[in-house]
UniProtKB/TrEMBL annotation:
InterPro entries with a match to the protein in the record: cEGF (IPR026823), ECM_structural_protein (IPR050751), EGF (IPR000742), EGF-like_Ca-bd_dom (IPR001881), EGF-like_CS (IPR013032), EGF-type_Asp/Asn_hydroxyl_site (IPR000152), EGF_Ca-bd_CS (IPR018097), Fibulin_C (IPR055088)
Gene Ontology BP annotations: cell adhesion
Naturally occurring in which organism (per UniProt): Illadopsis cleaveri (blackcap illadopsis)
Domain EGF-like: 112-148, 200-245
PANTHER family (UniProt xref): EGF-LIKE DOMAIN-CONTAINING PROTEIN (PTHR24034), FIBULIN-7 (PTHR24034:SF94)
Keywords recorded for this protein, A-Z: Calcium, Cell adhesion, Disulfide bond, EGF-like domain, Extracellular matrix, Glycoprotein, Repeat, Secreted, Signal, Sushi
Any one GO molecular function term: calcium ion binding
Disulfide bonds: C83-C110, C138-C147
Name listed for the protein in its UniProt record: FBLN7 protein
Amino acid sequence: QSCLSRQQLLAAIRQMQQLLKGQETRFSEGLRAVRSRLSTIHASLAKAAPQLPAASCPALQAPADGRKFGTKYLVDHEVHFACDPGFQLLGSSTRMCQANGSWTGQEPRCAEISECSSSPCQNGGTCLEGLNYFKCLCPPQWTGTTCQYQAQTAPPTWRVMDDPAFSRQPRCAQIAQTQQCSCDPGFHMSGTASNGICQDLNECEVYQREGGPRLCAHTCVNIPGSFRCSCPAGYVLLGDGKSCEDIDECSLSQDNCTNGSTCINTGGGFQCVTPQCPPAAGNVSYVKTSPFQCERNPCPMESRSCHQAPKTISFHYLSLPSKLQTPAPLFRMATVAAPGRPGPDSLRFGIAGGNNRGHFVVQRSDRHTGELLLVQSLQGPRIIHVDVDMAEYLDRAFQTKHLSKITLFVSAYEF
């Protein structure tokens, strides 16, 4: 007897439809008011006195041991640079004057060409230069004239003792009828006093054997009288001579990603990614609204499964060094209320999927933000996927859900 009749149900549904229509009308009116206000502000700013672009750029000089072509420094004019024979150009060979009064590119300079200037040594090898020749000192796992081959398990045939660059004659002087001999820094006396020779001191082996401070972030290469640090492929040696920094192939346009894919810089390399929306299933389908986000298409009123599916799916890519100290915050999710729509009064965060969930936890950092934490260190190289979802509730009633699909590219190195 307490159940509503069919006519009462239809009347209640019509009343709800009219209420929703009124809410949509008020929301649209609010958007029109905001748009009108923005247009007014834009018009008032546009009427302000515009800042006139610079008509020219500062004069440029030819680099030392080089030449400059072009004498006009007006906007959109170009100046070209070249080096004298025996020198190579570092920096920009062409610079154009921009409307803001600055030049594009980097200041050019001419560097003397040497045997090692072309970086002939591969795979982290160090180039040792002599008179009209060069030698590549290779890391232990590489061999060949340019370190182009992986070393075999057999011991290498070349030894420090075999290279004359690693041994020198001592400096001797007659003092009080006694001959005193000494070696240059980085060398030690080998043999007897009468026929001794200065042999190179292998700092890399000495420091490793004696447990001293780590000389290099990656590989230590012994050279006559000293040592050098080398970095793996995809990294560059920093100014301190020991630390390695990743080369951002994406920003330098050194990637080979095709149209439609996006370059993601990783430790020692890059990845070409093309995020795809999930295929349609039942009443649930998605459309790509940006290269890294999908939006759910409107759901039928009666489809609960559609309303329970994520409203947005976003794709995120992170590059991590190997053995990162934990716990480490990796990613944050937050919610923002749309104009005219009350924001959620409760949020729930969780790990929804992935191929290595045991390494992560999700915790709330404040009322409207959740954090993904790495709690177990990751050893690279490897690729980890983890999905984090955020559900919105209003008055304890489920509103919507958002899904973040996170991909971690873990480097093989700890830098």
